[in-house]
Structures are given as structure tokens and as C-alpha cells.
Amino acid sequence: AQSVTQLDSHVSVSEGTPVLLRCNYSSSYSPSLFWYVQHPNKGLQLLLKYTSAATLVKGINGFEAEFKKSETSFHLTKPSAHMSDAAEYFCVVSDLNRDDKIIFGKGTRLHILP
Amino acid sequence: KAGVTQTPRYLIKTRGQQVTLSCSPISGHRSVSWYQQTPGQGLQFLFEYFSETQRNKGNFPGRFSGRQFSNSRSEMNVSTLELGDSALYLCASTYHSGSLNEQFFGPGTRLTVL
Known about the structure:
Mean pLDDT of chain A: 88
Radius of gyration of chain B: 14 Å
Oligomer: heterodimer
Structural class of chain B: mainly beta
Helix content of chain A: under 10%
Helix content of chain B: under 10%
Largest sheet of chain A: 6 strands, mixed
């Protein structure tokens, strides 16, 4: 069975400092992994996706994520936080060639301090 | 290409009433999933429809039901509304390819039960 764990429910960083949002997954097969962002009162927007190609995935707005199979992790990073990055972030796993279930993490709320 | 649309965007009902929410997926997408988002529980999967058939179901009571039409549009119905049903209901259409299941989300319907 697949699952996804976002290790922090809240993360606070100062503007201009690096962002790290952690995600660990469990999957029996080759997973597809995604990060979504949700700004207040807005829908979910895809940030980036991993689909067994390059392990370092670049997304929109300067975000990146690295797939580490040995650590079953897919952490989201950004070198320098901006005030507009304040939002909730969801890590998502979907198994290939299985029942196509898509599992969301519980989310990490990112706070940007001025 | 138009995105996922959901109607209505906002809805206020009273306990005991029923409600029907509508979702139109992206053209060509045959799968529609529904999620409930609340501050306490996060994003919870309700059900998924593919080609007019319910393919996956989350852990919600039978008061929550859905259907999908031949044009892939989907409706979700909640009967005998309870206060706890107040939430943002998100619909997502899924693009299935050989190596990727990517969801595209609508803006959501915010339901308030009084």
C-alpha cells in the first residue's frame, strides 16, 4: 500500500532564506510524486512532478525536489523564500500500474517572516 | 484549453438539507476525483469516477454519493447535511498516460452548513 508523510505541519522561514519542506513516501512500485501548492482561498496548483526520469525535478517559482529512492524521500526546496510563497504545500504519491490511487499528504503550511 | 470548472463556488445550506455540486473536467480527461478539505482533517479523498463508473471510494458515509455522465461531467451529492460537512469540496480531473497520472484541480465549492 502506498502512503505519504509530510513531516512538518508548519514551517516558518525568513524572507530570503532557504525553504525545505519534507516528504517521505511508501510505495511498492515505481511511484509518481508531485508537489502541489494551495494559496489561501485558491485551488490547488501543480508545482512539480517526478515520473522516473531525472531525480532532480525543477518546478515553477524556483522550487525543486529531489527523488531519493534509498531514503524514500521527495523533499521540496527553494534557495530563497519570497513572501508570495506563503501557502500550504501538499506532497502527493501515485503508483504506476496499480489502481491509480492518488494519495495526498496532510500538508505543510509555509509561513514567511519579514 | 479550459480548466476544471466547479459550480457553484459558494453554497450555504442548513442541517438536514441536501446539496449537489457539479464538476466539469478538462476536455479529454475521463477521470474525475472528489476531495473534501477541512482545517482539521486536511484533504480527504471522497471518490473517483472513470468512464461513468466509480473506481475508487474513500472512507465517507453513504450520505456522500456521486455520479459521472457520458460527457465526463460529474456531480457529487450530500444528503441530510450535518454541520461537519462544512468544507471546501475540490474536484480534480486526471490525465492518464503510460507513465503519469496528473491531477488538475478546480477552484472548489465552499459549502457552509448552518
